[in-house]
Amino acid sequence: MADHYEALGVARDASTDEIKKAYRKLARQLHPDVNPGAEASERFKTVTHAYDVLSDPQQRQNYDRGGSGSSQGGGFDAGNFGDIFETFFGGGGGGGGGMRGPRSRRERGQDALIRVELDLDEVIFGTHRDIEVDTAIVCATCSGTCCQPGTSPVTCDICHGTGSIQRAVRSLLGNVMTSSPCGSCRGYGTIIATPCLTCQGQGRVRARRTVPVDIPAGVDTGLRLQMPGSGEAGPAGGPNGDLYLEMKVRHHDVFSRDGDDLLCTLTVPMTDAILGATATVKALDGDIEVELRPGVQAGEILTIKDRGVTRLRGNGRGDLRVGVQVLTPTKLDHKERELIEAFAARHKVSAPALSHFQQGLFAKLRDRFLG
Asked: What is the mean pLDDT of the chain?
C-alpha cells in the first residue's frame, strides 16, 4: 500500500491545512470529470483515501504508529468520502443516487429601495411622480435568453442535461452511488456556447428607467409603499423583484403635522385680539377665513374643520388647528402710552400670578410662539 504522505506529496509533519490544500490540488487534477482515464481514477481513489486517513486526527495518529490508519480496518469510509466529495465538488454524497435535476438559470431579481421626498402640500391630496430608477432590466438583444440572437443553450455533453454527475464508490457495504453538480455546466444541464455580447450572457443589463407612481394622500415620513414587480430584473429573464418607496415629507416653514391634522400659528395685533377681527390667511390648499372673537386669548386654539390632511386609510380630512399668538407692541409714542395708561386705569385686573402649566396642543406650539 502506498504511503499516504507520499500519495499527497506532503511531509510527515504537515499541518491539517497543508494536507487539505495538497488534496484539493490533486483532486482537481485527477477528478474523473477532468481526467477520465483509468489510471487517474485509481490514483484519485488513492489520494482520497490518504486524505480520509490523514485529515482525521485519530486515524492519522494510528497510521503514524504503524496501523492501517482506518478505524474500520482499511478501505474507504463511504460516509467520510461523501463529506469530502461535497466539500471539494459541491455535491451531495448521499446513498441511493437520487438526482435532483438541473437547476434553473432564471432567478428572481433583487428588491430595490428608493427614498422619495415630498412637500407637505403634495401629501394633502396625493400626487403623481415619475421615479428614475437605476436598475437591471431584461437585455433587449437576447430577451433574457443569455445567448446571441439565433442561438440557444446546448445540452451539456458531460452530464447529458441532468446537471449532476453520478458515480459508484466501493465501500464495506458495497457500491454506494454519489451525486454532485456537474463541473462543466455548474449544475444547469446546459451550456451557453455563444453568450450574448450585450449582457455577457447574464440576460440582463444595467439601465435607467422611469417608473410612474401614484402616491396616495396621507403618507408620512417613514412610510414605505411596495410596488410588486418593479424592482430589478432577474438573471436569464427571471421575474422582477419588488420596488419599495420610502416617504420623506419635507419641513414646511408655516405648517406642521399632528397625525391627519395641520398645525400653525396666527399672530394677531393686540387691538384685533381685544376688538375681534376676521383674518384671511393662505393655507396649503387655498385661502381660509379665520374669525377672531373679541377678547381672544393668547394660546387659544381655533379649529377649522376638514382643512387638514386627507386620511390615508379612510374617508375625509383632518382639521386645521390654529394657535393664537397675541403681538404686544414694544415701542409706543407719547400719545399711545397715554391711551394705554387710561385703558389700564379703567380696567383694573388682579396682579400677575402663577398657575398650572397648560398642556395640550398649544404646548407643542410654544417654541414657535417664542421664536
From this structure: 82
Write out the H or E segment, with its range, that includes residue 288.
Answer: strand 286-292
Query: Do the domains 4-75 and 256-370 sit in the same CATH topology, yes or no?
Result: no
* Sequence-distant (≥ 6) Cβ neighbours of residue 200 within 8 angstroms: none
Residue 370 CA neighbour count, 13 Å, CB half: 6
pLDDT at 363 (0 to 100): 54
**How far apart (Å, rounded) are the C-alpha atoms in residues 366 and 325?**
10
67 φ/ψ sector (left φ>0, alpha ψ -120 to 50, else beta): beta
Closest CA to 106 of 241, 236, 232: 236
Dihedral (CA of 7, 8, 9, 14) sign:
negative
For 352-367, what is the mean pLDDT? Answer: 57
Please give the model's pTM, rounded to 2 decimal places.
0.61
The domain at 4-75 falls in which architecture? Orthogonal Bundle (1.10)
The terminus-to-terminus CA distance of the chain in angstroms comes to: 93
C-alpha pair distances (Å), 17 with each of 7, 13, 24, 51, 55: 16, 12, 10, 11, 9
CA distance 295 to 274: 5
pLDDT band at 100 (very low <50, low <70, confident <90, very high): low
